[in-house]
Amino acid sequence: MVERDKDVFQQFRQLGDEVHKKVVGNDEVIENIFIAIFSGGHILLESVPGMGKTVLIKTVSETMDMEFDRIQCTPDLTASDIMGRIIRDEKTGEQRLEKGPVFTNLLLIDEINRAQPKTQSALLQAMEEQEVTLGGSTHKLPQPFTVLATENPIDQEGTYPLPEAQKDRFLFMSVMQYLTLEEEMLIIKKKTEHKDIQKIFNPPEILIIREEIKENITISDSVLEYAIKIIEGTRTRREVQTGASPRASVAFVNAAKARAFFRGRDFVNVEDVKTLCFPVLRHRIILNPDARDFGTTTDDIISKVLEHVEPPVD
């Protein structure tokens, strides 16, 4: 790759080092957040409470000089609580926009499945079109704009399943794992330390790098065919009611290009596809009731598909 890209590759390493000043473990989740930001996608994060999600996202936003905001979802949360509202000044009669928390670079939506479906749906325009409509006018969101939404994997009272159309808007669904004993001891020690976080990138640089990834990272026909065959494989399994949509193909390519770029390559390889197929596909597969009752997971389906799809020979 060109010399500048080698410098960017080193910066990505620094980016991870800075985040790990405050965050321990879950390296895959951290990398997926980076990939989403630099490819213009959003992340659905499955996690139980108390896993350090807010610290993680705040730290990521600091390393990239991004504005950060958070929404704690509850059943009485309304669309205007997220998007904002048009306020009329009683003295002048003029209307002005009171911006909601969606007007930021990195938005953490905690426990999105506790918000009512109507409120969840209000996010679709923001996630897909990077803009919101209020009072008949359209307002652009700050760029870059990335949503990280969390949901609890345990069925609890007061939760509402995410519509499939909304799940499909997320580039990834990542799973935040419990820490090992050593990692948990380390994170407790870090609580007593104070380390300044260095800014490695800023929003204009992120937008420039996004374009570089789109224009300069290539994917061969054989690797692209491999990715699409995996997606097709999710549609033909007898355990599956609905497989991944064509949007998954676009997500695959965008994410794989970003992963290749992070590793200093100007091309996507088979390993990029294999690694990313789980976070790209697991939330886009709907299982048959019988398969769910039997304990089958979407990750099981993806593993079976990978066993049957032959990767191309380099």
How would you describe the overall organization of this protein?
There is one protein chain. With 314 residues, the protein is an alpha/beta fold. It has a domain at 22-197: P-loop containing nucleotide triphosphate hydrolases (Rossmann fold, 3-Layer(aba) Sandwich), CATH 3.40.50.300. It is built from 14 helices and eleven strands. It has helices at 3-19, 27-39, 53-63, 79-83, 117-121, 123-129, 164-167, 181-190, 203-216, 221-236, 246-262, 270-281, 289-293, 298-308, and strands spanning 43-46, 68-72, 84-88, 95-99, 106-110, 131-134, 137-140, 146-151, 172-175, 240-242, 286-287. The protein has a five-stranded parallel beta sheet with strand order 2-5-8-1-9. Strand 3 and strand 4 (95-99) form a beta hairpin. It is globular. The two termini are 19 Å apart. The mean pLDDT is 86.
Topology:
Layout: H1 3-19, H2 27-39, E1 43-46, H3 53-63, E2 68-72, H4 79-83, E3 84-88, E4 95-99, E5 106-110, H5 117-121, H6 123-129, E6 131-134, E7 137-140, E8 146-151, H7 164-167, E9 172-175, H8 181-190, H9 203-216, H10 221-236, E10 240-242, H11 246-262, H12 270-281, E11 286-287, H13 289-293, H14 298-308
Parallel strand pairs: 1-8, 1-9, 2-5, 5-8
Antiparallel strand pairs: 3-4, 6-7, 10-11
Helix pairs in contact: 2-11, 10-11, 10-12, 11-12, 12-14
